Amino acid sequence: MASTKMEVGPDGVAVITLCYPPLNALHPDLLRSLFRHLSEAHGDGRVKAVVVIGSNNNFSPGFDIQQFRKGSGGGGIDGSINDAICAVLEGGAKPTVAAINGVALGGGLEVAMGCNARVCTPGTRLGLPELQLGIIPGFGGTQRLPRLVGLQKAVEMMLTSTPIKAPAAAKLGLVDEVVPLEQLLDAAKHHALDIAEGRRPRNLSLVRTDRLEPLAEAMAILDFSRAQASKRARNLQHPHLCLDAIQVGVTDGGIAGLKAEGAAFAAAAALDTHKALVHIFFAQRSTKKVRGVTDAGLSPRKIKCVAVLGGGLMGSGIVTALVLNGVDAILKEIKQPFLEAGMGRVRANLASRVKKGAMTQADADAAMARVTGTLDYSHFKRADMVIEAALEDIGLKQKIFVELEGACRPDCILTTNTSTIDINLVGAKTRAQDRVLGAHFFSPAHIMPLLEIVKTEHTSAQVLLDTLALSSVIKKTPVVVGNCTGFAVNRVFFPYTMAACMLVDMGADPLLIDKVILGFGMPMGPFRLSDLVGSDIGMHVGKNFVESFSDRVYVSQLIPLLNQHKRLGEKTGSGFYKYDAKRRASPDAELLPLIDESRRSAGLAMPGKPPALSPKDIVDFIFLPVINEGCRVVAEGIVDKPEDLDVASVMSFGFPAYRGGLIFYADLLGADYIVRRLRAFAGMVGPKHAGFFEPCAYLADAARTGSKLEAGVPASSKL
């Protein structure tokens, strides 16, 4: 139960403790209890001052995020909370001091700033990360933080959602004292009594102006911040709403600023962005819950040592991810120069982190000491898991897995990092298929956050549970998927480049397509992405989808022509773009003859007349086939639940998180809209290519019944 408790000591200090395990999130019931106890303290003749502290050695991580899932957004936050903070926390009869340990984030910091002073411990983190959820600070943070740390730092903290640590907070003036944990409560009490007895000033941060920059400088800071927000947060309104509220406070005072903050908060909470980011927040945390695995009453076995076969970019990245998180690694190669190169890559990955200040040299040395290099299987009895990261060759992988079955313990989990090959084929020649699965990392493996765990019909629940547990240890977000061509991520996105190539064959400019898709929120357009990956890789991977899904693919000559002319992308200096020595892209006129040849082969372009498509048309033409394939993946049970595909799309291909992931975005558009648009596009390209746009049964059913795609698979469309 969320509540507070109050104790009045013989010194006249009322200690109000926030109580909502585990971290004291600010549930509405807790806030009501806090304000009730504050009112009681102000009316109690025994009380001289008040200290607010958190239970379980933590102050508060902020407002209870679960509340954001209710109703229309915003969690029910309204002006009454700010009124209470002003009346009984900041401006009541008795002074208040926040005693902070652990974290004071979001609403937690806003409550602390509402107190007349703040005392914290050395390890405390303080910040306002609300913009990560598509809203703005709503408990006075837009007004009080600038008055405590200055406008420039406050804007930086809010727009980047970056917390600061106790020493910086003390230097900036956000906290008044930093003391050891064992002294925290006593120090806060003494500080509170000093204020009550006139030895220290009582500060009301809402009306302070001494740390605000002069008006002209403040306005320049806000103008610059708006320009930066427009550049770095394309398509997002809530950073500007935050800045608007801050500006009112700067120009018209804190009280007016609070009113503006309330209006801006309500406007942000009503946006789809807020709903999308809250959805992704919870979806990320639900991928580790898998039906038939995490609810089967099993306990995960600890994986202490993992062997990795192959020391290339992928294998060395996987080893780096392991040793960075305390897991011993064995790196096997077939020749000494290859092994030395692989070990060198791991060492370079660690050195890069040292250079960036992400770890110390001593920690890097300790991580490197966890790696054992080998040219044979002599160390493999130590391994609890093996991750094969060899070439994409079925025969080679089958040979390796037969060798692994003999070299490893009978309880060792055998995984492959393949992105294209059927997992059953990889383990087909072993008698260990119950402990064979795919562990598909994304490159660079020590940086990219997603791990696609590919199960077969033979994979045991225990093996899946153990692999899920390892993903947590190495700080990856896992998505358990079924075994099919491309698994979940690559399969869902195969229409992405195909649709873009179809548009070019119809007469559209590839540079314009890239610009539009970048504007939609993707990290780069499909043609810039092709150059990054390599058109040779794209052609190889594309063949798998052409063979597996021949009824709904588009085969353009664009990619084959690039391969024929050795325009493989960045690595050869040219592809859809040309590249300088620093791999900066620019248009290349030499691409135009290849585009013309592809268009002649396709026969889709109107002579001298490019298709009249708006940016919205281009986005729909490219993404609606991707959504359609995503619906097939949901209907076939390739993912455990639709939101898993949302997480995978955001964390792999960079689908904008503020759109909620692929299926959430589809629901924002509506299934009926998607089906109508797909059928219109089919009409544009004619019967030969209409299959590319044919709505799947799951999508068509949702359009007919008006149901949400995120709801899961209706009985009528289970495959």
Automatic annotation (TrEMBL):
- A Gene Ontology cellular-component term: peroxisome
Q: Which residues form the 3-hydroxyacyl-CoA dehydrogenase C-terminal domain?
A: 486-579
- Indicate where this protein is primarily found: other
State the Gene Ontology terms under molecular function: (3S)-3-hydroxyacyl-CoA dehydrogenase (NAD+) activity; 3-hydroxybutyryl-CoA epimerase activity; delta(3)-delta(2)-enoyl-CoA isomerase activity; enoyl-CoA hydratase activity; NAD+ binding
Pfam families in UniProt: 3HCDH (PF00725), 3HCDH_N (PF02737), ECH_1 (PF00378)
Keyword line = Fatty acid metabolism, Isomerase, Lipid metabolism, Lyase, Multifunctional enzyme, NAD, Oxidoreductase, Peroxisome
Query: In the UniProt record, does the keyword Metal-binding occur?
Result: no
Provide the protein's localization: Peroxisome
Recorded catalytic reaction(s): these are: a (3E)-enoyl-CoA = a 4-saturated (2E)-enoyl-CoA; a (3Z)-enoyl-CoA = a 4-saturated (2E)-enoyl-CoA; a 4-saturated-(3S)-3-hydroxyacyl-CoA = a (3E)-enoyl-CoA + H2O; (3S)-3-hydroxybutanoyl-CoA = (3R)-3-hydroxybutanoyl-CoA
| InterPro entries xref list | 3-OHacyl-CoA_DH_CS, 3-OHacyl-CoA_DH_NAD-bd, 3HC_DH_C, 6-PGluconate_DH-like_C_sf, ClpP/crotonase-like_dom_sf, Enoyl-CoA_hydra/iso, NAD(P)-bd_dom_sf
What metabolic or biological pathway is this protein involved in?
Lipid metabolism; fatty acid beta-oxidation
Give the UniProt record's GO annotations in the biological process aspect: fatty acid beta-oxidation
Instruction: Please list the residue ranges annotated as the 3-hydroxyacyl-CoA dehydrogenase NAD binding domain.
Output: 306-483
Share what the entry says about its subunit structure, partners included. Answer: Monomer.
Q: What family does this belong to?
A: In the central section; belongs to the 3-hydroxyacyl-CoA dehydrogenase family. In the N-terminal section; belongs to the enoyl-CoA hydratase/isomerase family.
This one is known as 3-hydroxyacyl-CoA dehydrogenase
